[in-house]
Design goal:
The complex is a heterodimer of chains A (about 90) and B (about 375). Chain A has about 90 residues and is of the alpha+beta class. Chain A is about 35% helix and about 30% strand. Chain A has helices at about 10-25, 40-45, 75-85; strands at about 1-5, 30-35, 55, 55-60, 65-70. With about 375 residues, chain B is an alpha+beta fold. In chain B, the strands form two sheets. A four-stranded mixed β-sheet of chain B has the order 2-1-3-4, sandwiched between helices. Chain B has a two-stranded antiparallel sheet with strand order 5-6. In chain B, a hairpin with a 2-residue loop joins β3 and β4 (about 95-100). Classes of the chains: A alpha+beta (about 90), B alpha+beta (about 375). At the A-B interface, α1 and β3 of A face α6, β7 and α9 of B.
Chain lengths: ~90, ~375
Amino acid sequence: MKVLKFGAVWCSGCLVMRPRWQEIETEMLELKTEYYDFDKDKQKVKEFKVSDGKLPVFVFVDKKGKELVRVSGEVSKKKLIELIEKHKDK
Amino acid sequence: MLKRLTVWLLGLVLLLSLALPARAADKVVVEFFHSSTCPYCIKENKFLKKLGREHKEIKVKSYEVSQPYSQRLWEEAGERLGVAVGSVPFTVIGDKHWTGFDEETIGKEIEAAVLKELGELEEESASEAGKLKLPFVGKVDPKTLSLPILTFLVALLDGFNPCAMWTLLFLISLLLGMKDRKRMWLLGLTFIVTSGVVYFLVLAAWLNVFLLVGLVKWVRLAIGIFALGSGSWFLRDWWRNRDGGCEVMDEGKRDKVFGRLRKIVKKQELLWAMLGIVVLAIVVNMVEFICSAGLPAIYTQVLAMNNLPAVKYYLYLAFYILIFMLDDMVVFGIAMVTLKAVGIESKYASWSRLIGGIVMFLIGLAMLFNPGLLSFS
């Protein structure tokens, strides 16, 4: 499983989530994450239909790249860890 | 740091609301210079004790003039009042004095002077009763505090929207890529100051419109209905955005502004870059002004209802702008010092929407049903 993080430099909530993810990535070294800029990585944005709704968006995908779950907005560290624990073996 | 700032701001508001009322003023002081061997002094002493029992607010200070310290005070009292001292009893209340004593004449005069001083004291106490004693500030009348608190709340609501900061955050992301710190500060501050000036001018224009048309009933009613709508909009927004996050804005508009910003920041000439930022800040703020849900109009209508001197009107507007720009200044300052872009957690904006929405709603109700409540002066 890996997490695709979609954010933008002009989005305050995305900046708030940055250190939260940094903490999680430091604590869970096995976790794979990829960051996509909303303005630059338009292909991925389109592929995962991120443009409808709010930023930031975090898409959890399995080994085959199939979407498992997604969350958006300012999500708590606790909730993110819960989701990671639940889906980490997929 | 943001958390600390919010705590400070909330603390300030709490401090204003919880401060204890000031104590009443001091007592009426009767200075009584006497000698232990003078029979009139003994009579007056009895009279003053009786007077003291009848009026607890009287404080009699007795000085036996054979004592050097008392002698000095006696002479000083004489100098202060412009009279030669030499005979006792000598009595002083404020700027009045009596030499000798006779209960029928001087006694009555002393009692009348005491009562007069007490009357003034009560008047003063009555005007002091409603005042708050604030640390470092002193005594403040809560009536005069209502308008600053209202200004603070409305400006905070108006300015505290992290999602509306998109231009500044994008500019910060461009500035952080530079190596020249002086240029970073200058360009960023140019944007912030221009935004503040533009908003100040908009507020001033609204204020002057309301001052020009005067306190017309239908304008007040229209603004009242508008405030109710605005309050409901903020409360709805608070309910819908409790989980935070920013709505993705129109791509065309975003690309246009960002494209221009990129070009401006890359300009070699600092002066041209600053001028470009000024123009862009004016355009962006005029467009974004629509997002403020009419708060400036509602606020300036309330301000106009308070019939203040011209200088005070503009000081209030300046205070509004300071609070309005606070989040921008903090975010920019932190980014420039730490060289990292930071965001403000939306829960603070969420709280400001809730409180501000309620305030707007109350302003609307007051404008419609009891406008006198909004005249704080």
